[in-house]
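Support request, please re-run this one:
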Amino acid sequence: KTQNDFLLEWIPWQEKYLSIILGLENPAVPEKCQVCLQADGNIRCLSYQTCHTWCWPCVVRSHVHHPFHRIQQWTGQFYDNIALHDLGYVLNLGHNGASCPKNTDKSQGDWFCNHFTIIHSAGIFIH
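Re-run finished. Output below.
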């Protein structure tokens, strides 16, 4: 078969595929967070192959070890890109994602860098 033959076979299905794709972009009813089942699930992760929605505390907790996932937040009209950092995510280097346990001198506070840029195969991230 030629490419044209394959396209001719697909044409009757195009409306169904378009409907499914657009349905993922515009949730018909607001969903609850699929982790806590309490708050509105207005955040999704494009790096997962599922259609799960989260509230911001649950998406931050579930991405402790996935800081380079692509996150989007529902604005009421469309999903817009948002950084995990903007949701309160703190990237701790070392110690399996936790704060350094040796930082016992609370007078100095936690040492942290306000902003830095990471270039990763999944994109450019500012934390």
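Residues 3-126 form one domain. The mean pLDDT is 81.
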